Amino acid sequence: xxxxxxxxxxxxxxxxxxxxxxxxxxxxxxxxxxxxxxxxxxxxxxxxxxxxxxxxxxxxxxxxxxxxxxxxxxxxxxxxxxxxxxxxxxxxxxxxxxxxxxxxxxxxxxxxxxxxxxxxxxxxxxxxxxxxxxxxxxxxxxxxxxxxxxxxxxxxxxxxxxxxxxxxxxxxxxxxxxxxxxxxxxxxxxxxxxxxxxxxxxxxxxxxxxxxxxxxxxxxxxxxxxxxxxxxxxxxx
Length: 237
Fold this sequence. Notes:
237 residues; 6-stranded mixed β-sheet
């Protein structure tokens, strides 16, 4: 496990696979955005302990979408004492194991990359979902808003924590070698491109992607520039 301190209240937890999870501290409590692949509970607990918190301090797991590199440890962490698991209503049945997710529509450029990555991601065990989120819902308990960003999956969301100036994009956007681009492996590329445009006017201090390096401070302008470009940056499209 590798833990990256982004701000005093925000940590990125990297696992042994392609997934990333983020811990956001809110006083004596914490929120986890995505969980990485299966088996990351101990890593998340270690990151909490480094803050002087135990598992009881984690109140929410908010999943940006159902893919197993994001929801893989939801079942494990949902067993912690105070955790509530939230996800968009379109992806919730898949996370619970009541429905199957569809295979992404791969471009030719994505096929080789997908074959390399998919073999390293274990299946996610079914997890309960305590609350099904709606499009553009305001989460007053967390000081955050849901941004509906369908296309990567039907229920993909981004999360704007407006009180602390942080945006979690999920996989509709990604950082690669200093550039912000459309994330790969989409179920509906046209919808994903339209969703990417939603980041055009969001002013935050921190941008956290499902994959790639976060943007801090002035670098967050890279996301706005990409979202307002004449064409959505999509090198694998």
